[in-house]
Structures are given as structure tokens and as C-alpha cells.
Amino acid sequence: MTEGLRAERQGGPRAEHQGGRAAGHLADTTGQREEGELLNIGAICSDRVCARGHADRVALIWEGFGDRKATYTFGDLKVFSNGFAQMLVDQGIAPGDRVCLFMDKIPSLYFAFLGVLKMGGVVQPLFSAFGDESLEVRLASAGTTAILTTRKHVKKVRKILDRLPDLTHVIVVEGDPSKLKDGEVFFDVESAPRVEEFDVYRSGPETPSVLHYTSGTTGQPKGAQHAHDSIWGQALTTSWVLDLKEDDIYWCTADPGWVTGTSYGIIGPWSLGVTQCVLDSGFTSARWYQFIADNHVTVWYSAPTAIRSLMRDGDELVAKYDLSSLRHLASVGEPLNAEAVVWSEKTYGLAFHDTFWQTETGSIMIANYPGMPIKPGSMGKPFPGIAAAVLDLKTYEPLTEPDSVGLIAFRPGWPSMFRAYLNEPAKYASRFVGAADGATPDELRTDTSLWYVSGDRSSVDADGYFWFVGRDDDVINTGGHLVGPFEIESALVEHEAVAEAAAVGKPDAVNMEVVKAFVTLKPGFEPSGDLELSIMNFIRKKLSPLAMPQEIEYKDKLPRTRSGKILRRYLRAIEWGEDVGDLSTLEDD
Ligand code: 6R9
Fold first, then answer.
1. Which CATH number covers residue 550?
2. Which of 71, 275, 319, 466 sits at 20 to 30 Å (Cα–Cα) from 515?
3. CA 398, CA 468: separation in Å to the nearest integer?
């Protein structure tokens, strides 16, 4: 046992539960690993950079709340990710096990991410603002074995632990070790003995790597499973679209709880050996500008909601900071309005370059490249090697007439494409048009005669530029984060006063959409402002601040289809001031 590691729960009932597991066995869960092959994202992002002679180069410049600051080299990244990998092996975690990371953007999150991959585990990052219910649904779905968290967030884990029989390890990586409960393990990688060398798990291209949960219209969120092969797509797009070069100082503002924060906030830059910055504190425009100026950030990847907030705070603030280090800006996650592009060009002397992709695609699919003429409001053109089209909404035939609106679709087979929705093969198959019944996931993702349908609508102009129109489903995009209406509605009806509920996105000047809920009340409850606050708070705690309705409208009854489904689209159309048209056309959707 190492100094920094205290297995207080050893010998307890949960330790017994994992007793039968063959620790460190090398069976690949996909069975596709070639003997001797090694493609491991954790090792490429740390060991390989060191082996190329860059162990002393800065990998991470980190700032937290207050004036907490730290800097780590690629050498540190290697040793600390080894530390996590070795600790997990010592704990009996086996390759293929799901290991959840549930913490703020602290340095250990980044070390642990690479560490889990180095020992062959599947890394499942979850947004630290998730409440206990959001957390439970995702851990139960993944059958997660271990969770790495902090003192600040462990309480939420304790609340649900008894309902998660697979979750046999709770490891706290920061905070006061004396405050842990029986059976919880404390591991502080920076004070533990250094692990200079670790025998990296010999993963191959198809070995499962990162697991991100993403919301759909129906049902609970789905686990999009990625594989180590993704690194080719992520490295290449980071190089060609984000334009990262070895001497850049890069800042991706996304949290690794979401796919942008792992594909481009960890894997992309570090696979290329580039220095990146992380700011783990709340948003203010002044703090962000100061961060860019202090760290001489050169390339900045952010999201439209943040850009609109910066815009709102005005040009005068910008003039107070030296932002001259910036040379390239890009954006993702939601529609980037033309006005924001024009404003950034005027204010920073640099236009934000919009990029389009999804959790499922794993890497950028459509983009404005450096040097390409930007048409403000357009997402740009498909990445080289990506065959993209818009398909007719009904026939799924590619539309050839410029400017016609259809479904954005891609020919399968790019390296970073998701390999499965965990345990939901039918849902996975439903994303492909033209597939034979019973096609396996492997057949689906390699058959270039199919279309993977993104679930978004767009048009393509005569020059081949894609123009986003909207989502093709009821998923709400708030500040670049997807929230599923079903998840919110399920939580709403758990409130003692709520009988039925519908959740839709309503327009918002900064966040594009915020959640609005329509509810009917149970007998004995009366509409009131206090009740509204109580319901909002209930959702914030259970799910997350993102999922919390900003407004609740009381109804006597909710509109339904003949088959009894709540007509969310009708409610949404009213919020957006759209023509609700003929109700019968909405009925059967
Ligand atoms: C990377 C990421 C994916 C959904 C996607 C679409 C929306 C992403 C966009 C955009 C308009 C863009 N989206 N980029 N909409 N313009 N440039 O955000 O993944 O969380 O899975 O969201 O976000 O609706 O389908 P994810």
C-alpha cells in the first residue's frame, strides 16, 4: 500500500464482491485486439510525447478558484497518469471495467482520464454539477465498477451507492482523508510515490475507450461508446481545423463531462504534444480575458453561449486586456449566429470559426478551416475524408438542389465514430439509414453505402457550405448542453405536487434555449410562486442546474396525441411563436 492510498474498506462486504475479478487480466472486451498491437490514447498523450523528447514541455497550465495555480509538464502527465493506472490495478479494477470520473476540472481529472485508459479501463466522465439522480441513471446504465471523485462531490455518491451493486470502489482523490466513510479509498496522486513506468494495457483500435452519455428525445440518456481508434480523427482535426502547432498555448473552455472537453480538451491537444490551459472557476468575461492575457493563449475553442455573454459585456472591457497572443478562434455546440462572428472579427480582429459535430461522431465533421472564407452563420464544409449530405426528410435520399433543407447525414466509417449505444443495439441501428435487418454494430459502422443520420437539419448552399436549421427531435440545447425532455419530465413527476409534465426549450438571448416545464398538479395542490420555486429547486438538485426549468406554467391538462403521447412540439411551437398549423400533422410524430 502506498502512502497516499488508504483502503479503509478492505475486507468489507464490497471488497468481497470484487474478490472474484481477475485483476489485471488482459482479455479485450471486443475480442478484436491483434497480438502485439498497441494503440492506447493514454500512452500516446503522455508517454509518446516524452519519448519524442518533450518530457519537459508544459502540458497543463491550470487555474482554479481564487488564485490557485499549477503547471505540469508532459513528464508529470506520464508519471501521474501512471500513478492512477497503477492504483486502479492495485484496487483490482480490470480492463474493460467502467471507471467514472466525477469531479470539477482539477488536475487529477486529467491525469486520471489518461490513467484509466492506460490500464485498459473504459473512462466515463460525468459533469460534476449532476445531481444524484442524473448520476445514478448513468452509473446504473454503464454498470460502473469504480468512481473517482472529490470530498466536495462524494456525498452524492453515498446517497445512491446502495442501489448500485456493481459500484464496488469509491475513490476520493482530493480533500481531507480523515473525513471519509468506511470502505472509501483515499488517493492523492501528487503525494503518492511516483510511478515512473507502467506497463500499458495493449489496447488495439477497437478497444473501448471513452464512454459519454448523451440525451435523446425518448428514454433515459444513452451511453455513446468510443474506441481507441478515435485518436486519429481527433488528432487530425485538432491539427487541421483548430490549427494547433507544437508551440501553441491552447484553451478549450469545455468541461470533460461533455465530449468537447475530452476530444478537444484532452486527447486532441495532448496527442500532438501541445500545451493547454484549464480554468476551473465560474464564468465572468473579465476572468476569461485575464486568463488569456496571463497565459498568452494562442488558440481558443469555445461555445456560442460564452461568446454571446462576452459580446453582451461589450468592447470596452476587451480593450482593458492584452489579447494580442490570440491567433485562431473556433466554436462548437450550438448555432453560432452571424452577428457573433462579425462581432468577434471586429473586436478581437479574429473571427470565430464554427465547427459542427456530436458526441456520437467523436470528432469535428463540418468546419470552417483556417484560411477558408467564412460565411458568417454557416458551419462550413465537411472535413476531408468525411462524406456528408443532407437527406430528404421523408425519403432519406440525398438532396442535390442547393439550399433545400434536409437531415445532416454522414457515410459511416470515420475512426472516431461511436461504436455502440451501450446495451442498446436497436437504438444504435436506428441511427443508420439503409441498413439490413439484424446488421451488427460492426457492419453498420463500416458499411459506406449507409448513412449515419445526425438528427439535425441543415441546408447546403451552391458553394457546399452547410447552414444549420435546427434539431429534428425534442432535445433541448441549453448553452451548448443537450438535455433530454424525458429525463426532466420523469424527475418532475417525482415532485409531490406534480401529476403530469412536459419539458420544452424556450428561446433565450444568451443560452439559445432554456428549459420550460408545463405541469398539471395533483388534487390538493394550488399553483403558486412558492410551488414553482420548490419544483425548480427539486430538479436542480436531482438532475442539474442545466436541466432546471427557468419557468413553470401550470395547466389544467396537457395536449396529447390520439395515442396519448404529450404533444411537446405543439407546446414548443407556441413558445417559439411558430405557426402551430394543423394539429393533425403533429399528432402522429
Ligand atoms: C460537440 C457537441 C451535439 C448537438 C448537435 C447539434 C448541436 C453542435 C453545432 C450544433 C449548430 C453547430 N450542435 N455543434 N448546432 N451549430 N456548430 O456539442 O456534442 O453535446 O453531442 O451535441 O449540438 O444539435 O447534434 P453534443
1. 3.30.300.30
2. 466
3. 16
d(CA 550, CA 575): 13
Q: What is the mean pLDDT of residues 113-142?
A: 97
Q: Are residues 369 and 315 in the same domain?
A: no
| Residue given cell 451501450 in the structure block | 422
CB 356 less than 6 A from any atom of ligand 1 = yes
Predicted pLDDT of residue 565: 78
Q: Cβ(306) to ligand 1 under 6 A?
A: no
Report yes or no on whether pTM surpasses 0.70: yes
* Neighbour tally for 579: CB within 10 Å: 7
* Domain shared by 311 and 448, yes or no: no
Q: What is the pLDDT of residue 517?
A: 97
CA of 424 to the centre of ligand 1 (A): 22
**Which residue out of 358, 360, 375 has the highest number of ligand 1 atoms within 8 Å of its CB and is therefore the one to mutate?**
358
Residue 460 domain boundaries: 360-414+431-471
What value does the mean pLDDT take over residues 325-340? 96
Q: What is the pLDDT of residue 220?
A: 86
Q: Ligand 1 pocket test: which of 482, 512, 513, 546 has the largest number of ligand atoms within 8 Å of its C-beta? A: 482
Distance 410 CA to ligand 1 centre (A): 15
Nearest to 170 by CA among 264, 219, 103, 106: 103
How far apart are alpha carbons 427 and 362 in whole angstroms? 18
pLDDT tens-place string over residues 519-577: 999 999 999 999 999 999 999 999 999 999 999 999 999 998 777 778 888 999 999 99
In this prediction, residue 216 has a pLDDT band, given cuts at 50, 70 and 90, of confident
Give yes or no: residues 372 and 449 share one domain: yes
Nearest Cα neighbor of 444 from 454, 432, 453, 456 is 432
Considering the domain architecture, whether residues 317 and 379 belong to the same structural domain is answered as no
